């Protein structure tokens, strides 16, 4: 075999190799997964996987290395998920804050209505003890007063019932929003773990 033919054959083999791994012959030796590289955004194919010369998103030391495309894709997905996570977390926290504030107000309304029921019931009971026949022998004004107190007690009992039902809904809203926030945080942690795995 002539030297000229041998040189052509070697050149052809080097060119074929460079086409397979996707880098120029001068970069072929340096193109190794996670190895340092010199020129940002240079691309290569290593073991059938696309790589790019850039900063590994999970590396503690920022330097140009050959980073696998799946890692870069995972990082893009993580950034999107993180943005959504921030928005959702803020929304859930807002719901918790709002429902908690309404819960406190509702508890005060229940306490006030129940106090009316207790006090007015005690006053009416005391009055009826002293005037047991007011319903039959009392004046119209006395009968009207008793009826007003009874109606007031009934109204406040209904307020207690309504606000207690509302309170239960608010408690559930707080629980649901808290659980939602917890799930969002867990999803973000899972996305981060997936990113770390993809970028090893």
List the helices and strands and how they pair.
Blueprint: H1 3-21, H2 25-28, E1 43-46, E2 49-55, E3 64-68, H3 69-130, H4 134-137, H5 140-198
Antiparallel strand pairs: 1-2, 2-3
Helix pairs in contact: 3-5
Description:
The protein has 200 residues and is mainly alpha-helical. It folds into two domains: 3-74, no CATH class; 84-198. Helix content is 74%, strand content 8%. The protein has helices spanning 3-21, 25-28, 69-130, 134-137, 140-198; strands spanning 43-46, 49-55, 64-68. A three-stranded antiparallel β-sheet has the order 1-2-3. Helix 3 packs antiparallel against helix 5. The longest helix has 62 residues, at 69-130. It is rod-shaped. Mean pLDDT is 86; it is low at 1-29.
Which properties best describe this structure?
200 residues, mainly alpha, three-stranded antiparallel beta sheet, disordered N terminus
How would you concisely characterize the structure shown here?
The protein is built from five helices and three strands, in the order H-H-E-E-E-H-H-H. The protein is mainly alpha-helical and 200 residues long. The longest helix is centred in the middle third of the chain and has 62 residues, at 69-130.
Mean pLDDT: 86
Please indicate the count of domains: 2
Strand content: 5-15%
- Spatial shape: rod-shaped
Contiguous uncertain segments of 5+ residues: 1-29
Count of helices?
Answer: 5
Question: What is the number of E strands?
Answer: 3
| Topology order in helix (H) and strand (E) letters | HHEEEHHH
């Amino acid at each position: 075999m002539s030297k000229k033919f041998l040189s052509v054959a070697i050149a052809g083999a080097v060119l074929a190799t460079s086409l397979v791994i996707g880098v120029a012959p001068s970069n072929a030796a340096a193109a190794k997964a996670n190895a340092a590289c010199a020129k940002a955004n240079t691309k290569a194919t290593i073991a059938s996987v696309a790589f790019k010369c850039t900063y590994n998103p999970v590396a503690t030391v920022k330097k140009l290395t050959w980073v696998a495309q799946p890692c870069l894709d995972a990082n893009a997905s993580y950034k999107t998920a993180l943005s959504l996570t921030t928005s959702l977390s803020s929304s859930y926290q807002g719901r918790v804050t709002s429902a908690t504030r309404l819960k406190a107000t509702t508890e005060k309304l229940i306490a006030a209505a129940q106090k009316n029921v207790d006090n007015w019931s005690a006053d009416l009971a005391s009055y009826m003890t002293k005037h047991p026949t007011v319903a039959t022998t009392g004046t119209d004004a006395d009968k009207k007063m008793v009826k007003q107190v009874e109606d007031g007690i009934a109204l406040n009992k209904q307020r207690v019932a309504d606000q207690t039902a509302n309170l239960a809904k608010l408690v559930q809203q707080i629980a649901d929003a808290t659980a939602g926030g917890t799930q969002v945080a867990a999803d973000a942690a899972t996305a981060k773990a997936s990113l770390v795995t993809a970028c090893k």
